[in-house]
Amino acid sequence: MKKICVIIPIYKEKLSEEEAYAVDRSVEVLKNRKLYFVAPAGMNSTWYESKYPQVKWETFATKYFKNIFMYSRLLLSEHFYSRFSEYEYMLVVQPDVWILSEDDKLDYFMQFAYDYIGAPWKQEEKLYPVIFKGMNHLEKVAKKWGIPFNQPLMARVGNGGMSLRKISAMLDIIKNHPVAVKISKISKRNNEDGFLCYYLNAKDKYRLPTSEFAEQFAAEQTARQLLEEGKIPFSVHAYEKRVGDHNIMREYMEHRE
């Protein structure tokens, strides 16, 4: 089995200037990996093929790229992960991710064999069973896992925008919880990373890192604080919102230890 594929989700025919800087960085640092654009079927790819000829393409139905809720449906589907089943791991790198390291450190993070690593949320998120408080099927699901009804699980790891995922674990969750997945796909109350992190926390069979370790891999809500303290993570998700433009990100990259 091949070790890892890198997935860059896109939905428009040309990236913005800031997105292009970020994707340029991702492609450069991860140039020795198998890189894929995940895009809507039929989208004009001329701009990307000219700028990133080394990146392969996997397309899915256009409906999955209409909004964040439909994108979550795609990332909670068996056919999405099955498309990459020849790989053990998947790295999801959205176009608003800036990789600060000049070195590809994925081998370091993969050696710990975690099922999922994502940028920690600043405070523990309350993840109700199936993320749908009050749904009729909730009590049955909670009972199955030995969780008191409507008692939330607390989780900090983590955000899906920059995330390292073991593909077999993602498929295991999706295949073993078809009712929960179906309900998730018709709701606009949760995102795919919250759904997955609930089940990753609900059962001991999955391995998750501490939030401190996850912050070495990616930061989002805590990014500015970490950088100002001189703690440089491998990457930052939502960098424009959390830190600043690509010039500011380069400053942190240049002054890393």
From TrEMBL:
Domain annotation DUF5672: ranges: 55-237
Organism domain of life: Bacteria
This protein's name: DUF5672 domain-containing protein
Organism the protein comes from: Anaerosacchariphilus hominis
